[in-house]
Amino acid sequence: MEDKVIRLAGLVLPALFLTSAAFAQQADQPLLKGAAAFGGWRADKPGVRRLIRPEDLPRPFVTKSASNSAGLADMPADAKPQLPPGFSAELVASGIDNPRVVRVAPNGDLFVADSEANQIRVYRLAKGSAKPSEQGIFAGNLNQPYGIAFYPPGNDPQWVYVANSDSIVRFAYRNGALKASGEPETIVDNIPSNHHWTRDIVFSPDGKTLYLSVGSGSNVAEEMDKAPKGGLEAWVKAKPLGAVWGSENGRADVQAFDPDGKNGRIVATGLRNCSGMTIQPATGALWCVVNERDALGDNVPFEYATSVKEGAFYGWPWYYIGNNEDPRHKDARPDLAGKATIPDVLMQAHSAPLNIAFYDGKDLPADSSFPKQYQGDAFVALHGSWNRGNRTGYKVVRLKFKDGKPTGEYEDFMTGFVVSNGEVWGRPVGVTMAADGALIVTEDGNGTIWRVTYDGGRS
How far apart are CA 353 and CA 383, in angstroms? Predict the structure, then answer.
């Protein structure tokens, strides 16, 4: 879903980049439902709320398949993302080649995957500040690193795990280390890496399971129209529900391993490109955000965030958003009809969700956390569309939860990265909660990292 963009130099009017103070008079927005929620970048601003349901899906091919990649503008010196009233964003770093996933070490250090530079960066921020007091390259000579995880979970990890596009490696680690002390140890190898290459990893709360997401090797797996070797019936009996074969074998799924990389198994299938995973603190459930398929029209199918259920099949490539058959695989798998799990939260089509993080500030001092209504909600970074005539994404949104369960509603939280219908200056990728309650966001358009804090009235 995500695409490469061409850098177009140019200045942007400062008025396009209003700070959060400009929204002081902003009231709660009406909840947009159905087709009204599809929209595009011109309707985006902090507080805009959307609720998209499976029954809102248009038919495929109602619109033509667009090719609408954004040009990349230089970030103006005074540019800042737009945020809800009471929030502000400070620049942590800029000029990074390709900042992607960001994760927080137990001591508060920020570990950032600089994917195209094949390295992991680390930033130690001064207390209560966005200014790094120390920084460095933790490890280099990697292969498109993306996911980062500390093991064992808790306050005293012994390892940093890194997901390359084709392997998982780990480095010996001690709290506060700014540079790896030794060579990487390969834990999982031979991960297929063409096409979708973003591999995320996360440990279960008890540290016994390492989850790995592996995206598909194509848009819609055209070769699945040919039966697997030995026949479809035998394949279905031997493999998990919805498992794919051929060059897609072991892809479009979430896998699990023991911490040493052994005992590999498939957790769930049919997830076209689960580019970001996290554990929900309130429930211990595994969540992922998924880039769905292209070329069915501007609003088909919806992107989504979902809890990942053991043994579940989420549709790709034969079905999407439940029992909606992809017309390019018509009548290919009637045995799977009605068996695709419907995702929990649906989002605007082609907006390219890349990372997800829950906000869990209940143990923080009241003066350093977000307002209480944010507790238990999740933030998702939307990298932005290319297969849509009306550009969407290029923002961070907030998924609403109640009593640990998703309401299906989400709202714009961090916007302002789009300059015009043809240009953007920012493409959000990584999102995580810092040790002090700030929200950390990376974007790979201009290679920046932002620290978002709440400094308004408490509620």
Answer: 6
